[in-house]
């Protein structure tokens, strides 16, 4: 029998109220008591709208990722060139407060890689989508004469993402924002190397 939530409005409230909590504490680090405190609802009310904690966590991840994508889209859409759009990603990620708790793709992927297949898949889909967006920008840049025609768009996109995500990880782990800035400057230089003069 398919689970049907009691109230879509309450379900949405629970997602919004717990999204930052899951992003900061992770799936394993978030208890039902934490969910009750964040929502001021009873366990029965929460589980009347979700089958279990896993479903709340997945919905919270989807919400966090949607919020991240919305903020990135605003930043990237403001630029008019492919290179400008790539640089907008760097400017966006240079803000340590981009989203409460940091990058949900990284947070979820690191925690769930060996422990929670459903969340790992969601994080993987987020990375694949991010890579697809960057590949598309690189193709547009090649077509517009901004980037060299021999650019390996898949390789550049993966390297671009790995450097950004690595910068976030190092910066957050060491609590040193200058590390993030330094690595993002290296990403900038990397993109300059594929640009036509």
Automatic annotation (TrEMBL):
This is Transcriptional regulator, TetR family. SUPFAM superfamilies: Homeodomain-like, Tetracyclin repressor-like, C-terminal domain. PANTHER family: HTH-TYPE TRANSCRIPTIONAL REGULATOR LMRA, TRANSCRIPTIONAL REGULATORY PROTEIN. Keywords: DNA-binding, Transcription, Transcription regulation. It holds the Pfam family TetR_N. Residues 8-68 form the HTH tetR-type domain. Residues 31-50 bind DNA. InterPro entries: Homeodomain-like_sf, HTH_TetR, Tet_transcr_reg_TetR-rel_C_sf, TetR_C. One of its GO terms (molecular function) is DNA binding. Signal peptide: none annotated. Coiled coil: none annotated.
């Amino acid at each position: 029998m398919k689970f049907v939530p009691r109230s879509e409005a309450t379900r949405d409230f629970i997602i919004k109220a717990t999204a930052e909590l899951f992003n900061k504490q992770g799936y394993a680090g978030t208890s039902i008591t934490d969910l009750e405190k964040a929502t001021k609802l009873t366990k029965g009310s929460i589980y009347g709208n979700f089958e279990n904690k896993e479903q709340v966590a997945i919905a919270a991840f989807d919400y966090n990722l949607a919020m991240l994508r919305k903020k990135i889209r605003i930043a990237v859409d403001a630029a008019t060139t492919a290179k400008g759009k790539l640089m907008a990603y760097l400017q966006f990620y240079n803000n340590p407060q981009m989203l409460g708790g940091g990058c949900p793709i990284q947070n979820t992927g690191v925690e769930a890689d060996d422990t929670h297949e459903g969340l790992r898949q969601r994080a993987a889909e987020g990375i694949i989508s991010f890579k697809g967006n960057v590949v598309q920008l690189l193709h547009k840049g090649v077509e517009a004469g901004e980037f060299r025609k021999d650019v390996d768009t898949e390789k550049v996109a993966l390297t671009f993402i790995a450097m950004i995500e690595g910068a976030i990880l190092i910066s957050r782990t060491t609590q040193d924002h200058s590390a993030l800035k330094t690595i993002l400057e290296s990403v900038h230089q990397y993109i300059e190397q594929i640009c036509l003069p």
